Amino acid sequence: MTVRRRKWTDPTGAPREAWIVDVNAVGRDGRLRRIQRVAPIQNKRAAEKLEHELREELLNADERKGATAVESPLLANFAKEFIDTYATPNNKPSEVESKRMILRVHLVPAFGNLRLDQIGVAEIDGYKAKKLAAKVAHKTINNHLTVLRKMLTVAIEWERLTMAPPIKWLKPPPPEFDFLTFDESNRLIAAAQGEWAAMITVAARTGLRLGELLGLSWTDVDLETGRVFVRRAVARGIVGTPKNGRSREVALSQQAIAALVAHPRRSLLVFSDPQGKMLTKGATKAPLAHALKRAGLRHIGWHALRHTFASHLVMRGAPIKAVQELLGHSTIEMTMRYSHLSPDARRDAVRLLDIKEALTMTWKTASGTVLQIPLGRSLRAA
After folding, report:
1. I need a labelling partner for 167 at 20 to 30 A (CA). Which of 50, 262, 272, 273 fits?
2. 243 catalytically annotated
């Protein structure tokens, strides 16, 4: 079937669906070619139109190119062009560095000597098997394959490749996370000393990522209205936009406001080193570890404070949608990992049925008869 509605799960675990066109055709030279595309407009009619255009493109490919086939480049050679020409203009600096690292350390050693059109399902499955044998996490392998798929897609757009093989994502295990109880988080904040007390308090009471804390500016903090605007994040020492490229607003608790009011202002940055310069990720590890030790708590990282913030909100009955917006998650599925922490919500929802049946309305008829009618039922039914 060349036009179909396809459903799949992306590397983050979020469900996706789209109209897909998958066309095979024999060119004028007798060679079988295949093109896969996502319909630009997501409906069946647009997909069928695209299918017709792709068939014409395949049939006339040799004529347009003067019957001269263009050989696909080696992945090792295409990798640099992909980074310089595609990734650098279109991605954040931190994302460019991430792609560059994945290519240098993983993809080029594995596929570098292959032409792009030689990378098929068997080669990709072999790569997955090798990484799994090396105990590499499923999500990490999916991240590598995401870069590979993007490279192949760009190569098709640049007419360096005719088709890309389908990629089957590895299903990651259910995400596990650690968080502090209400008592533990209070003990940690009480044990935090000096200027780190404010950063630890804000982390546990706002859920900001570590990179967002490092990039937080005083111009983004409004102590009068009690809110912070998350507009920047630091990744690999480079200041960019927050994850997913989305800014957001987070309300401040009274405890967080008090901590920021007492916090010294050395520079435009809220949290900085003694000279007012940007903190590094490495410099934040020891202060948190010392505070945890003084509080008599297990070792956790800064991201566990983000989990603590989200978990406490859900346990206090906050709506999942509100938690999603405060955390800046791109999909509600990412936030649903915390939903199991609110068992009372399901119990209370069912009890609403009991409340509805228990509420009654008193009705006195013309003859003087008094009727007790349960709400939700009509008078005629009563």
Report:
1. 50
2. yes
